[in-house]
Amino acid sequence: MRAKSPTETPLLVVKLGGSLHAAPDLPRWIAALKCWPHRLTLVCGGGPFADAVRDAQPKMGFSDATGHAMAMLAMEQYALALAQLYALDLALTRAEIDALHAKRRIALWRPSTMVAQAHDVAADWQVTSDSLAAWLARETGAAALLMIKSLDVAPDLTLDDLAAREVVDRAFPAYVGTTPLFVAGPRAVNHAAQQLGEATPPGVAIGLRKKIA
Known about the structure:
single chain, 213 residues, alpha/beta, Carbamate kinase, seven-stranded mixed sheet, 9 helices, 7 strands, 43% helix, globular
């Protein structure tokens, strides 16, 4: 049987919450994610950089559309920091993502270019990095989307429950569509490396089976 090329293997898109930027679990999560044996694209939140945009908006009075564009750059600032700290490769476009996967490298997404060209992404605060990760997972045909959060969630929650409790943004259910979804909190990190090494996303599967490869 012919071995699969890297671009034929299951793709996992992972959203790394911005709230984890100063958490002791951050390096543990990065190390665990590097155990994933197939294609992986990492999306980071805006963290303190996005908070700065939110704080500045009422004082300066710029529009939501401008704030949305600034938030994209906040995500890229966080991505630049992660790339330097954890030896990750940045990707601006689908072609750059695919090229990194072909080299068996993790692609750390810089969203501004692709989002600026998208006609189905709302430019307001209802669409945060959560929805952008879901959009990217759908656009790239991901086998699953893993949301790494700073809190644990119950296994019986629905997508609407997650949005209502602000675990994800309110636009998220529409963007994630039918992409298999997993949510991992602090408890999941202890076994994450082993699970990811076995092509099993850690955390809670939202109404879905756990193995994707």
